Amino acid sequence: MKKLNDILQRAGVIDIIGNADIEISMLCMDSREVSAHSLYIAVKGGISDGHNYIQNAISEGAVGVVCEMLPDMLETGITYVHVKNSRMALGHIASNFYDHPSSRIKLIGVTGTNGKTTVATCLYELFTRMGYSCGLISTIRNKINNDEFTATHTTPDAISLNRLLYQMVEKKCTYCFMEVSSHALDQGRTEGIEFRGAIFTNITHDHLDYHHTFQNYILAKKKLFDNLTPQSFALINVDDRHATVMVQNTKAHVYSYGLSSAADFKTRIIEDTMLGLHINMDGNDLYSTFVGKFNAYNLLAIYACGVIFGNGKQETAIAISALNPPDGRFQILQGVNGIIAVVDYAHTPDALENVLQTLRSIVKNQQKIIIVVGCGGNRDKAKRPLMGKVAVRYADKCIFTSDNPRDEDPLTIINEMKSELTSTDMLKVLSIVDRKEAIHSAAAMAGNNDVILIAGKGHEKYQESAGNKVEFDDWLEIKNAFELIKEKI
């Protein structure tokens, strides 16, 4: 329980109507989660406005309401806190309520279009291997030491985030590695959070359905670095042309990493095969099961962060060599007749190109690349034709299929992927709406030693379509497809 007065610091309070000395048992931004002695924070969302549910929250037991607009009728016995911006207030109130947990743990935020999950997850694994107690907040899962929790968003809401960090502090975690999405930064979910460090991987075309312009997308990512303190660090991929923009206004100590540009941390690829990478990192030879140039960048960011925190270069390199890719990130499955399947989360044009370029550079002349790919519904439509063009540029055969169509017609999405292809391009393309059928068709048409790339969903264990969320796992489907072919041989 906390006194309301004690959790309003830096919340942008305009006025308090009622008793500010009341006890608060929990914070809620969803009126359906309210119970006795709750403080309800009314937040304007993209779909609904929390101000419309103030009365519901009071009926469920809320004793206090934080809002930008006061209700026309104020109830006796309820304390109303009028603030400038509910979203910004929420972050600070949550931080205050949970005793500023981000200031009591070394929190490292990872942002960028591609690589966030790999870098954050592998940093958690690296520092755990090196003997530290760690937390992880990621797209795939949240972890506190060895305890695992389901992740519902790349970056949780402010209440859930502070509660997670508080639990990590209680469990004696020294570090937390956290994916930070552009949506979270734009919506103020990290307001009131103190980062000890921030890592920028890259930025390419994505989420323009939400941000509308690429410049807005860049500015959203940049907020993470703008809010760093002089005691923190910023680590940027200097090979990305937008990297220096990210740190233009930062107060943090800036470090750089890269493969081709002058940087504080450098690496060189010696060999890249389907078995993994052989790289030289700051003079240390390193063998890894990770594949591809894009993963060389990820490993370098992980290495740099380890060294920045005072770990030995050789010790860090040895520990990195034992890491494995997270679920759905260039996961390789060996099938019959030497056929190889790769399951990857690549769902942006740049990520898809990175994976396909890697495969094209590795496969032998006689090996063909077959890709199964789609685009999500209710998301950035502008990238659909780009995804289609990338697929036909590098693959020998393309099967366009459903990803998570959500509320859209999957065939319409597929047609938009094909909209800028030439008649010659179309000779490579099959359209199979059913994703299971598409995966099994790819397995059936693959010849000896061919490579099948199943892109877009990666670790996801579901498919969203027409308001339904059904179980679906790319990895299991291609595994089942290989088993069926094996039975027929």
Q: Can you characterise this structure?
A:
The chain has 489 residues and is of the alpha/beta class. It has three domains: 2-97, Udp-n-acetylmuramoylalanyl-d-glutamate--2,6- Diaminopimelate Ligase, Chain: A, domain 1 (3-Layer(aba) Sandwich); 101-320, UDP-N-acetylmuramoyl-L-alanine:D-glutamate ligase (3-Layer(aba) Sandwich); 331-488, Mur ligase, C-terminal domain (Protein-Tyrosine Phosphatase, Chain A, Alpha-Beta Complex), CATH 3.90.190. Helices cover 33% and strands 24% of the residues. It contains 16 helices and 26 strands. An eleven-stranded mixed sheet has the order 11-10-9-12-8-13-14-15-16-17-18, sandwiched between helices. A six-stranded mixed sheet has the order 19-20-24-21-22-23, sandwiched between helices. It has a five-stranded mixed sheet with strand order 2-7-6-5-4. Strand 16 and strand 17 form a beta hairpin. Helix 2 (86-97) packs parallel to helix 4 and helix 12 crosses helix 13. The chain is globular. The N and C termini lie far apart (66 Å). The mean pLDDT is 94.
